[in-house]
Q: What sequence folds into this?
């Protein structure tokens, strides 16, 4: 905590919730453009290989995908409720809602693990014998993009969970409170972003036929 | 301010924080110290890049093998490019002078997120180390060129992965700096510092920060895809699996063309500070410069296709990209007219920064106009992939950004170190450097027109004369560089103490002591109605 005192000498009273909110939104822009590059790649190859993408999409389990969509939407709600609870000063409610959100995030990853596991057991992974020998180029691209995009998204879920862990600790020890809610607010914003990206990934891979 | 008493009298160079010595620097969240950390690290990488460039020019002194074989030459220009682009000119002015000066110029104590700022520097160092790993370990130095074009980037047997990952990390550092500056400029301006009173260097940093933020992630994901392609064979850029290598080029240039403006916009900003100061006159067309800055930042996104005229693209797309390329030249020209009009009837005070600024305008104009030769479809077919492109590119990036960097260095040096350099030696250094620059790159325009391809370690006998002149130029340029560096390093330690405002400038950084105090201002500055960055009357 000496570090904190040191920072205090150099930067008296730098806390500005508005700044951290703007900063978070700007970071979200960069994340959107990161996935934006992938969406361009996806749309180009979908346009060039419409039939193969259609065929490959049949392989995916729409039920698990839909289930994950629903629970992720619910988790967005619970983290928003947690933010509101903190604003109203209900610390315990805020923590409980964060724990629920966290568990849903874990649940999402478990489903993802099952989904990927099934693909692997069918011999489908980037560069596998099965893919190279039996699939058309369009299908190879579909699954290549499927693993890259859902994998990158899962990585974002993990980062979101880590941030949530810090937010939980902050709320628990009182450093994140109704007057200094930035960490929890930003954690919520990030989680909504992760949710939003999934809202796009789900129809692109599972629903469009 | 309630805490300033504790540090009264100490400036940021001598202030003793929590840590002593080196640790007091590499863990400092003071924007000025971070700026100096960037200066030293970028200068080191620049010197490395210069040495590699010197080696390439030596190889081209005579046809055939002179000092290195083809593979070594390929690796040398790749590493030269990666170092100079990702580690020198992209961070260059924003990370060094943006950090050192921007918060003071807007009347703030620091940037909005000081710890994030320090993290940016650490990420920069991490990126540098990763790229160096690619050079020193594994199966050979990368030989793809700095553009990592597919499919060669995942077919080459060299150790490319760390280099690609390093470029990704450097991009992340750049994004965080941009984010920090945007929030700082929005939130931390002092009372009275309206948007219409912001110094132009700050405005160009603002435009640059938006490009850093919105363009860098695209190249980030593209580099991730190349890495995944190499490790797993995903297929997105591999024609054997249905992927399209031209799509890689699109994604790469969607970032890398705007990145050219990341390099040049802050350079234009620094020149826009120096010209009015040494003309002692209000900048001509303040709002036109702001508008052209934002126009460059915006239109610069839409011209990437002109890097790919010969790579396979529909005629319609070619017309579109060519037209937009001509349009993006207009705001740059507006700035040149503004600088020259500012000098007109000013009380010109010829000093080293002014020499650099004026030579900047000259080389920037040559570079810009030769860019139009490449932006026009018919002539591009003729000169693409020749030494002409190399000449154009170095006139803009080295002549533009590099000269502006030296201009800014000589302009803000007394403020940064609190000491003045030897002006006579600084002028000699500039002259030698300038002559060397012209001799090094001008022959390449001619060689390119005559058909000498770039990126070859060998050439036909008929190109010998031009290459000899170019190589001699590289030696003169390096001599100039050594003079400049020795003079600055010596002066930073032993030069005579500098005044608070040696150039009689009007921007806020000249109202504080040299070097600035730890918290920048004893008392928060307030701008009155009549104050402004260029009000010289």
A:
């Amino acid at each position: 905590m000496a570090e904190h005192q040191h920072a205090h000498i150099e930067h008296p009273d730098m806390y500005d919730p508005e700044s951290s909110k703007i900063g978070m939104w700007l970071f979200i822009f960069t994340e959107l453009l990161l996935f934006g590059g992938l969406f361009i790649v996806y749309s180009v190859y979908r346009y060039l290989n419409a039939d193969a993408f259609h065929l490959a999409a049949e392989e995916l389990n729409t039920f698990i995908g839909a289930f994950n969509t629903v629970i992720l939407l619910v988790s967005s709600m619970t983290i928003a409720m947690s933010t509101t609870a903190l604003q109203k000063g209900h610390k315990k409610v805020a923590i409980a809602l964060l724990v629920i959100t966290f568990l849903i995030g874990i649940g999402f990853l478990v489903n993802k693990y099952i989904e990927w596991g099934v693909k692997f057991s069918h011999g489908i992974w980037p560069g596998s014998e099965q893919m190279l020998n039996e699939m058309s180029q369009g299908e190879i691209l579909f699954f290549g993009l499927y693993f890259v995009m859902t994998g990158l998204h899962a990585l974002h879920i993990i980062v979101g969970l880590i941030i949530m862990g810090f937010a939980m600790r902050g709320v628990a020890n009182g450093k994140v409170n109704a007057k200094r809610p930035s960490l929890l607010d930003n954690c919520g914003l990030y989680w909504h972003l992760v949710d939003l990206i999934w809202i796009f990934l789900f129809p692109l891979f599972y629903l469009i036929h | 301010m309630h805490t300033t008493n504790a540090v009264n009298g100490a400036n940021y160079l001598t202030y003793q924080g929590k840590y002593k010595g080196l640790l007091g620097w590499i863990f400092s969240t003071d924007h000025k110290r971070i700026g100096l950390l960037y200066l030293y690290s970028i200068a080191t990488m620049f010197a490395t890049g210069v040495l590699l460039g010197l080696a390439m020019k030596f190889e081209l002194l005579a046809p055939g093998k002179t000092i290195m074989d083809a593979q070594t030459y390929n690796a040398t220009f790749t590493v030269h490019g990666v170092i100079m682009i990702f580690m020198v000119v992209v961070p260059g002015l924003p990370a060094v002078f943006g950090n050192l000066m921007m918060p003071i110029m807007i009347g703030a104590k620091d940037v909005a997120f000081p710890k994030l700022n320090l993290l940016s520097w650490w990420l920069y160092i991490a990126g540098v180390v990763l790229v160096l790993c690619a050079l020193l370990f594994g199966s050979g130095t990368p030989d793809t060129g700095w553009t990592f074009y597919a499919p060669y980037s995942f077919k080459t047997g060299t150790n490319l992965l760390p280099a690609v990952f390093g470029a990704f990390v450097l991009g992340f550092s750049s994004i965080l700096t941009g984010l920090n500056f945007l929030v700082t400029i929005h939130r931390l301006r002092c009372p009275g510092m309206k948007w219409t009173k912001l110094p132009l260097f700050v405005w160009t940093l603002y435009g640059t920060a938006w490009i850093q933020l919105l363009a860098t992630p695209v190249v980030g994901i593209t580099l991730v895809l190349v890495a995944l392609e190499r490790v797993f064979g995903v297929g997105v850029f591999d024609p054997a699996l249905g992927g399209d290598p031209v799509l890689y080029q699109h994604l790469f240039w969607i970032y890398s063309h705007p990145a050219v403006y990341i390099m040049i916009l802050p350079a234009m900003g620094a020149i826009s500070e120096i010209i009015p100061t040494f003309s002692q006159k209000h900048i001509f067309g303040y709002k036109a410069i702001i508008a052209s800055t934002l126009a460059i930042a915006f239109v610069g996104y839409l011209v990437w296709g002109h890097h790919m005229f010969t790579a396979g693209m529909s005629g319609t797309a070619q017309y579109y990209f060519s037209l937009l390329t001509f349009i993006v030249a207009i705001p740059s020209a507006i700035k040149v007219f503004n600088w020259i009009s500012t000098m007109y009837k000013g009380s010109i005070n010829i000093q080293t920064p002014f020499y650099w600024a004026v030579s900047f305008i000259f080389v920037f104009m040559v570079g810009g106009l030769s860019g139009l030769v490449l932006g026009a479809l018919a002539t591009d077919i003729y000169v693409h992939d020749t030494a002409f492109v190399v000449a154009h590119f170095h006139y803009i990036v080295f002549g533009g950004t590099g000269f502006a960097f030296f201009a800014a260095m000589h302009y803000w040096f007394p403020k940064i170190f609190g000491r003045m350099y030897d002006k006579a030696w600084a002028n000699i250094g500039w002259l030698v450097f300038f002559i060397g620059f012209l001799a090094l790159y001008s022959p390449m325009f001619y060689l390119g027109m005559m058909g000498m391809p770039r990126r070859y370690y060998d050439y036909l006998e008929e190109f010998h004369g031009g290459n000899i002149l170019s190589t001699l130029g590289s030696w003169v340029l390096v001599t100039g560089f050594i003079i400049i560096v020795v003079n600055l390093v010596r002066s930073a330690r032993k030069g005579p103490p500098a005044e608070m405002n040696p150039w009689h400038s009007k921007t806020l950084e000249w109202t504080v002591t040299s070097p600035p105090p730890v918290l920048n201002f004893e008392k928060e500055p307030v701008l009155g109605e009549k104050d402004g960055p260029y009000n010289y009357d």
Q: What stands out?
A: Chain A has a mean pLDDT of 91. Chain A touches chain B through 47 residues (CB under 8 Å). Chain A has eight helices and no strands.
